[in-house]
Amino acid sequence: MADLSKRQELLLGLIIREYVDTVQPVGSKPLVDKFHLDYSSATVRNDMMALTDAGYLRQPHTSAGRVPTESGYRYFVQRLVGGDADLSLAEKRTISHQFFQAHGDVDQWMRLAASILAHHSSAASLVTAPAADRPAFRHLELISIQGRQILLVLVLQGGSVQQQFLTLEDPLTQDELTQLAGQINGQLAGAEPSVVEQQSATMPPLTQAILAVVLELMHRAAIVATAEMVFDGLTNVLSQPEFSDPVLASRTMRLLEEHSLLSEFLGRVLGSEVGGVQVVIGGENNWEDLRDCSIVIARYGAPGQATGALGVIGPTRMAYGRTISAVRYVSSVMGELVSETLNG
């Protein structure tokens, strides 16, 4: 990323803000007039040409002004977003009060977070349910049903409960099942799937068969947790001029409707740090389905216990400063609520 002069940075920031507001190419003279710049139109025009040559701006038509490129937005997000776009103190107080009224209901928190983010970003929002950072074994029960049939009840760290019936090769009494479950609990308390798999290889065939089911349930729990998403503001995105093209609108709706795509995306790009905001612009050349969109996301929750994700999806022409501020603040509020719930 090429360094820019202070004047070029100023102009790039102004052009991006103006384009976000107007959706019109920005010319040098209107820029000088509107912002009362101390530079001549010729000087600004020369800097805009330099920014174009550097790949931060492009000119849609020969006689038109300039519009930002993905590289321009990226430079803006990494170096130019300032505190002027932060949520006001009054807005933060209103948001906190709204969450206080939700009375400890996680579903309400998710819906409220999605609504707030959609409102403050004028884009679409998504929130996933808090879940154990990594599925970890907590407790196992084996309950005799009839003959060789038993019910396996698996409790994971964080309280998630998974159940499955299975049929043993030979019948066991309830006392034998309880003893077997106790042995497994003693060896695997707190174990993640990789540890369960390693331990299983050294155990008797019956225990291996039970742990194969345990592993399946642990993986299933992780997928289900990621799939629990709440969306809001879809009409905000589809009403943007960028998505007046039916093809672009259809591709964007597919992205938002197919949770598996978003789950895969979140799994690959979302960092482990709680509260850290990440910005993905135009798919970063890796995600074809996102090439017309940008995503601002953060992880929230109690580190090492249970976390979820929340964020905003919109066109690359996004009010990044305000959106980043909203995502950061809502993730901090949600994190406090989850921590208080888990730790009393």
> Based on helices, strands and strand pairing, what is the structural class?
alpha+beta
CATH topology of the largest domain: Beta-Lactamase
CATH C-level of the largest domain? Alpha Beta
Low-confidence stretches: none
DSSP strand (E) fraction?
15-25%
Largest sheet: 6 strands, antiparallel
Distance between the termini: 46 Å
Total helical segments: 13
Summarize the structure in words:
This protein has about 350 residues and is of the alpha+beta class. The chain folds into three domains: about 80 residues, Winged helix-like DNA-binding domain superfamily/Winged helix DNA-binding domain (Arc Repressor Mutant, subunit A); about 160 residues, 2-Layer Sandwich (Beta-Lactamase); about 90 residues, Enolase-like, domain 1, CATH 3.30.390. Strands 3, 4, 8, 9, 10 and 11 form a six-stranded antiparallel sheet that branches. The chain has a three-stranded antiparallel sheet with strand order 5-6-7. Strands 1-2 form a two-stranded antiparallel sheet. A hairpin with an 8-residue loop joins β1 and β2. The two termini are about 45 Å apart.
Short structural description:
With 344 residues, the chain is an alpha+beta fold. It has 13 helices and eleven strands. Helix 1 packs across helix 4 (70-80) and helix 6 (106-121) packs antiparallel against helix 13.
Blueprint (SSEs and pairs):
Elements: H1 6-22, H2 28-35, H3 41-53, E1 57-58, E2 67-68, H4 70-80, H5 89-100, H6 106-121, E3 124-128, E4 131-132, E5 137-146, E6 149-156, E7 161-167, H7 174-188, H8 193-200, H9 205-227, E8 229-232, H10 234-238, H11 246-257, H12 259-269, E9 277-281, E10 293-302, E11 306-315, H13 320-343
Antiparallel strand pairs: 1-2, 3-8, 3-11, 4-11, 5-6, 6-7, 9-10, 10-11
Helix pairs in contact: 1-3, 1-4, 2-3, 5-13, 6-13, 8-9
